[in-house]
């Protein structure tokens, strides 16, 4: 059949009809999109590239790097400035007490933050600066005091004060920053990307810790920097600050946040209803004039007294400490059970990790920290401490490897299986170390510490994401807006992170007395017991979303 030019044109609809059809389809898509935004209160974030998730995880790398530096050097620093033993417990208790009290406040405040830069990133930046300040004070406090105070007695007093202040500030900010980082991830990622992001967090947490421990193991006094700077502590501060600043900058530039409220209502609307597959930024959309007609049409069609954009500024002003406490107490029971299981996990993990190098020196190597410094017993103890540091490095590397293995295991055993296995292997491993203290078997079993570490950093937060996903689905079915409930992701992440501080408080008050009476062996036995109790709690009390 031959199709003539005239018949071909006749077979096509007029161009005006095509244009009208396209406009109708576009209008229909806009209406569906608006209805979705009005019904759910939010649009599901688009899929994030792996590179963006890796950039987001760099904050955990820098944080853990600095944590490892603190673990390696804070005790020598405190001893070098002459801190009395009676003040040791005070140093380790102030920070977790502050964190336990203030963490939910900061989490709720970030849920209601109306900064144009986003809800979470202002808090992450502020806490990062406090971390750097604390690290600068406890690693350089002695040098700073010597530069300004000449009298010997005053130097010692102020050096202790400055160093203690630095340790408290660093621990406070480093513990605090985890909650906003997790909430930031949950805000900007789809459900599948949240799971990927948490695994990348665990991976880079382990890598950062391993590199930090290796950095502390280097004898920097024999390097060019060691000769140029007053002491090894300043060299370590230079590296730690440099690494953390780079990681924090990359993290803050990783994924743009959608601000909670805008002075420009049009800009806010476009942020909320732009299609999830768009790759250009919202600012570019506005500059290019895209979607302005959408806003104009819908605003003109809006019913009186009805607004497509809901401002939460009034909610932020009404948020008080009283309502915050009410929100925490009204958390559903499955959230509370998850917090209790998280508390068991961190009590077990910290009771082992805080005293592990001392356990290696005193129990495994049979040395003594109280012997004269030139004696064989003390040198043997120091050897055990150094080997213990290598064990912690094995733990960090194992944590990174297991974070990848979790992705493989998750489809087969689910979150419940991952949670249970993490607690069970850690409980069995620490129990074997306490019953059979041998150098090689202890180092081999240190790999199980990494499994527990990776579990604590991923599974509870994945469950929080599952809970929120389920709640939003139920609200969608009931025709409610997803943002109507007063409790946000920030305060739930903060509640989980509070369990870390509570575990530190409990251990600081109780475990120190037990160690003084029974020795360091009680730490690994306690860790094993608490972890095995946590196994049953994880299996029978924690709720898992099917």
TrEMBL record:
It is a multi-pass membrane protein. GO terms for cellular component: membrane. Pfam families: MFS_1. The chain crosses the membrane at residues 65-83, 89-110, 122-139, 159-177, 198-215, 235-252, 343-365, 385-405, 417-436, 442-465, 493-515, 521-545. Keywords: Membrane, Transmembrane, Transmembrane helix, Transport. InterPro entries: MFS, MFS_trans_sf. GO terms for molecular function: sucrose:proton symporter activity. It is found in: Membrane. SUPFAM superfamilies: MFS general substrate transporter. Belongs to the glycoside-pentoside-hexuronide (GPH) cation symporter transporter (TC 2.A.2) family. This is Membrane-associated transporter protein.
């Amino acid at each position: 059949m031959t199709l003539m030019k005239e018949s071909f044109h006749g077979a096509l609809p007029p161009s005006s009809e095509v244009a009208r059809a396209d406009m109708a389809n576009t209008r229909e898509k806009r209406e569906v999109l608006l209805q979705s935004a009005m019904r759910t209160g939010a649009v599901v974030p688009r899929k994030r590239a792996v590179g963006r998730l890796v950039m987001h995880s760099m904050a955990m790398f820098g944080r853990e790097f600095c944590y490892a530096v603190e673990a390696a050097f804070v005790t020598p620093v405190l001893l070098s400035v002459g801190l009395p033993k009676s003040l040791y417990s005070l140093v380790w208790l102030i920070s977790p007490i502050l964190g336990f009290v203030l963490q939910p406040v900061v989490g709720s405040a970030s849920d209601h933050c109306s900064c144009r830069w986003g809800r979470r990133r202002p808090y992450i930046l502020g806490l990062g600066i406090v971390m750097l300040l604390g690290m600068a004070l406890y690693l350089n406090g002695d040098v700073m005091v010597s530069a300004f105070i000449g009298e010997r007695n005053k130097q010692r007093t102020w050096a202790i004060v400055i160093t203690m202040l630095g340790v408290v500030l660093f621990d406070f900010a480093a513990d605090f920053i985890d909650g906003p980082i997790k909430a930031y991830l949950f805000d900007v990622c789809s459900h599948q990307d949240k799971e990927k992001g948490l695994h990348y967090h665990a991976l880079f947490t382990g890598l950062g810790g391993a590199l930090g421990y290796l950095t502390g193991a280097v004898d920097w006094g024999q390097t060019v920097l060691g000769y140029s700077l007053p002491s090894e502590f300043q060299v370590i501060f230079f590296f730690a600050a440099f690494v953390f600043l780079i990681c924090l900058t990359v993290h803050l530039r990783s994924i743009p946040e959608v601000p909670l409220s805008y002075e420009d209502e049009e800009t806010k609307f476009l942020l909320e209803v732009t299609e999830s597959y768009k790759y250009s930024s919202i600012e570019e959309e506005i500059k290019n004039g895209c979607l302005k007609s959408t806003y104009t049409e819908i605003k003109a069609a809006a019913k009186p007294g009805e607004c497509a954009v809901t401002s939460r500024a009034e909610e932020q002003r009404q948020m008080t400490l009283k309502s915050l406490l009410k929100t925490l107490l009204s958390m559903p029971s499955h959230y509370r059970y998850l917090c209790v299981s998280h508390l068991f996990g961190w009590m077990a993990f910290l009771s082992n990790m805080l005293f592990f190098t001392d356990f290696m020196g005193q129990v495994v190597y049979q040395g003594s920290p109280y012997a004269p410094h030139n004696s064989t017993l003390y040198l043997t103890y120091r050897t055990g401490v150094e080997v213990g540091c290598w064990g912690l490095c094995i733990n960090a590397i194992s944590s990174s490897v297991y974070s990848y293995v979790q992705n493989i295991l998750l489809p087969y055993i689910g979150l419940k299986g991952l949670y249970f296995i993490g607690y069970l292997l850690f409980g069995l491993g620490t129990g074997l170390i306490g019953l059979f203290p041998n150098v090689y078997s202890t180092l081999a079993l240190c790999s199980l510490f990494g499994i527990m570490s990776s579990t604590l950093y991923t599974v509870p937060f994945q469950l929080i994401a599952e809970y929120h996903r389920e709640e939003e689905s139920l609200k969608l079915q009931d025709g409610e807006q997803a943002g109507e409930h007063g409790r946000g992701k920030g305060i739930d992440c903060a509640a989980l992170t509070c369990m870390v501080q509570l575990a530190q408080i409990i251990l600081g008050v109780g475990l120190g007395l037990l160690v003084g009476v029974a020795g360091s062996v009680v730490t690994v036995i306690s860790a094993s017991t608490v972890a095995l109790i946590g196994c049953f709690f994880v299996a029978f009390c924690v709720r898992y979303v099917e």
